[in-house]
UniProtKB/TrEMBL annotation:
GO terms for molecular function: oxidoreductase activity. CDD domains: AKR_unchar. InterPro entries: AKR, NAD(P)_OxRdtase_dom_sf, NADP_OxRdtase_dom. GO terms for cellular component: cytosol. It comes from the Archaea. Residues 34-211 form the NADP-dependent oxidoreductase domain. This is Predicted oxidoreductase.
């Protein structure tokens, strides 16, 4: 697991190569404010090789945050993350590894009949109950998450992960009420609190696509204050001294800035609504911005009025710096499936992020 001494030692080794605030506090230590994402790409040996080289290079260049999920590329992404952590000239204690559970994963490749695969490999074996599935592919029941975490640790070849996310819980809203989903999350959090106490997980979080950045009347909305409250109850039930919910992950980029602009969450201490980013900042939750390049769309160009405010030699670097400049954002995650992109992404961190006033001015 990442440690205080390990991550600060990593920062001491690489920090002088980057601009101020590049490394930011997270968990017991610090983390680079640009992280390596592993979502995109085909589940092939060639893609594995490119990811392995890119990840190894990134870890040896100043990026000590890697984000993955059990379902990414049919479990292949987790496996190459583990390979890279072992192959890179870094220690495990220097690297923050995050993964996710919630979607039923294929193994190595997409099966010809996905429905039959889920039924035979997960339902009939008792890994997941049929009634817990949403859209035939998603579950967050305690038993399924516990099994998913065990598989992730095996894929990664690690004894623990630093952050474990419940993946897209809003998927469950397709088949059950919002209150029922909150109940599901509380049960899931209690399981993760138990695994945290056992040393399998450093902290946990919730990774979403829509839930926290849409208005209250949206059919995929979840209340961040309510989710936070359920985590606190779960920690108490599990006998933990503190609450292990430490992070949220959600899309944030120049063209998807709803997490900053949509005020749909009650302020933790004041009688007003705030955005997901503001709530997280006030509540002490770290935010990890996914889709920083809008899955590549912002690598070529970004809106001119925003572009002019940002530092960076390329549109991709300026888009990355926009995401990591937002209030409360700990790190921007960037899909890096090719070694060719590593140097450009790493170099984005040599430029200063926007200050709070400059960032606010972009939206005026």
């Amino acid at each position: 697991m990442a440690t205080t001494s390990g991550t600060w030692g990593y920062r001491d080794q690489f920090g002088d190569a980057f601009a101020r605030t590049f490394f930011r506090r997270f968990g017991p230590g610090v983390v680079s404010s640009i992280g390596v994402g592993t979502y995109l790409g085909d589940p092939t040996d060639d893609a594995d090789a490119r990811y392995r080289e890119a990840l190894t290079t990134a870890l040896e260049s100043g990026l000590n945050l890697v984000d993955t999920a059990i379902n990414y590329r049919c479990q292949r992404s987790e496996r190459v993350v583990g390979d890279a952590v072992r192959a890179a000239d870094v220690s495990r204690e220097e690297v923050v590894v995050a993964t996710k559970g919630g979607f039923v994963p294929f193994d190595g490749s997409r099966p010809e009949n996905p429905g039959a695969y889920v039924r035979d490999e997960f339902v009939r074996t008792g890994v997941v109950e049929r009634e817990d599935l949403a859209r035939g592919s998603h579950a967050i029941s305690p038993a399924f998450l516990a099994e998913s975490l065990d598989r992730s640790l095996s894929n990664l070849g690690l004894d623990s992960v630093d952050c474990y996310y419940v993946h897209n819980p809003e998927t469950q809203l397709a088949v059950r009420s919002r209150e029922a989903v909150y109940d599901q999350l509380e049960a899931a959090f209690e399981t993760l609190e138990e695994r945290r106490l056992a040393g399998d997980v450093g902290v946990y979080g919730v990774a979403t696509w829509e839930a926290f950045r849409v208005p209250r009347d949206h059919d995929r909305y979840l209340s961040l204050p309510e989710v936070h409250a359920r985590a606190e109850r779960a920690a108490e039930s599990a006998g933990a001294d503190d609450c292990g919910l430490a992070a949220i992950q959600l899309p944030f980029n120049v063209s998807m800035a709803d997490a900053f602009g949509v005020e749909a969450h009650r302020h933790p201490t004041e009688d007003r609504d705030v955005s997901a980013l503001w709530y997280a900042q006030e509540a002490g939750l770290d935010v990890f911005a996914s889709a920083s390049l809008a899955q590549g769309d912002l690598a070529a160009s970004i809106p001119e009025t925003v572009d002019a405010q940002l530092s960076g030699e390329t549109p991709a670097q300026r888009a990355i710096n926009f995401a990591r400049s937002a209030p409360g954002v700990t790190a921007a995650l960037v899909g890096t499936g090719s070694p060719d992109h590593v140097a450009e992404n790493v170099a984005a961190g040599t430029f200063e992020p926007l200050g709070a006033r400059a960032f606010d001015a972009v939206f005026e």
